[in-house]
Amino acid sequence: MTQIKVPYGDGYQEARLADDIPVQVVDPECPPVEAPVTQLIQQALDNPIGTKRLEEMVTPEDHITIIVNDHTRPGPNAEIVDAVMKRLEKAGVPDDHVEFVVATGSHRASTPEELDKILGEEYHRRIRVHNHDCLNDEEHVYLGETESGMPLWVDRRVAEASFIITTGLIAPHHAAGFSGGRKSIVPGVAGLKTLHIHHSLPIRPFEPAMGYFEENPFHIAALEAAKKTNVRFIVNAVQDVHKQNIACVAGDLQEAHEAGVAICRKANTVEVKELADVVVASPGGAPRDCNLYQAQKALSVAEVFGKKGDCTFILCARAEDGVGEGVFRQWLEEAKTPEEVIERFRKEGFNVGNNKAFMYARALTKGRVIIVSENVTKEELEKMMLGWAPNLQAALDMVCAERKPRQVIVLPKAVSLIPKVVC
Questions:
Q1: How far apart are CA 202 and CA 204, in angstroms?
Q2: Residue 248 and residue 154: Cα distance in Å, rounded?
Q3: Measured distance CA(364)–CA(338) in Å, rounded
Q4: What angle do CA 53, 190, 188 make, to 5 degrees?
Q5: Hey, which bits of 258-334 come out as E strands?
Q6: How confident is the model at residue 346 (pLDDT cuts 50, 70, 90)?
Q7: Which of helix, strand or coil describes residue 351?
Q8: DSSP 131
Q9: From CA 400, how far away is CA 395, in angstroms rounded?
């Protein structure tokens, strides 16, 4: 028997398949990283790309906004915050001239407990903290339009800062190609009027876009938007497929980010020579599988590996927070077919949650989607045109009982992959 094991929350889902069923596990080996992440961060801050060192750029008179990722984005956030704050202290910047803004995008606010982990308890209590709210129009400032016609509404605390520092993680992203850099502004701290255009077709790529970067309109619009603000310095970690921090880049918004993208692309690209009729995917466990909204990113990667129209996608997500934000559930429940969801999204554009409905529907046009979760019921999922199984073994048993799979591909850490199909 072939053993299959994928992350699920803080644990794993496991299953076994008969030896005569071909199984390919796409989980490349990564060399161990000897340097601690604190050392990587200090090296990046000591050798910024395209700028002077941070402590040489800021003054005690600056009003500094530090943008940090929210609770849905794993990474060495607290370590980066600590290193940045020490550089600001060295430059004589007083605490009351610094504020943290949490780049929630369209997600819920991070809780005090989550902020302790993101910022570290000391800075959470010492420095002002603001959770961005894309729905609160009064908290946004209009900064004009981009060349693509996207209106730019940005959180007031960011728009009015004289010096913005963005922090985060560069990893493969299903719409932007790669996360990090410019994404701290759009979507991180942008208003819904901006997100409505940026996250809608045609700026949003229709198909999954992991690794699609230089010519990606989603990236281009976000970069142009970020350049309209006072982003003067970025600090981004880079992780490999196994979530090891392999590098850190700091400095100029565009130059430093592009350097990190090159590192990420080399470390996270995987090749597959044969598409599968069954694809098992996990986002990589917590916190990426906290709900079906977040876990969808693994499904975007799975789509690339599946035979169109002849595939079963099995998505493993603990989903302790259930389905997720916005009208995601509503749109899938109201539609009779996946195509109806896609056409509605094409006409109405983005609103909080309907983008996820669109992307689940896109996968459903390529095959069946089965959710493995203990926190979402079969009845809930069937109303959303999705299947359900209590565990991975039950899901695979169900599929094999219907038809023996010709090829099974397993993606234990799907969201960390840049897929390259060479068949």
A1: 5
A2: 27
A3: 6
A4: 55
A5: 269-272, 278-281, 311-316
A6: very high
A7: coil
A8: E
A9: 9
CB 157 within 8 A of CB 65: yes
Which helix (H) or strand (E) is 409 found in, with range? strand 408-411
Q: Is 133 left (phi over 0), alpha (psi -120 to 50) or beta?
A: beta
Q: What is the torsional sign of CA 117, 119, 121, 125?
A: negative
Question: What is the per-residue pLDDT across 45-58, written as a single tens digit (0 to 9) for each?
Answer: 999 999 999 999 99
Output the pTM of the full model: 0.94
Which residues make beta-bridge pairs with 158? Answer: none
8 A C-beta contact, residue 312 and residue 280: no
From CA 280, how far away is CA 396, in angstroms rounded?
9
Locate 405 and state its tokens.
Answer: 């799979």
Look-up of token digits 């921090």: 245
Q: Distance (Å, rounded) from C-alpha 257 to C-alpha 263?
A: 10
CB 261 within 8 A of CB 49: no
Give the C-alpha distances (Å, rounded to integers) separating 32 from 241, 398, 412: 12, 38, 18
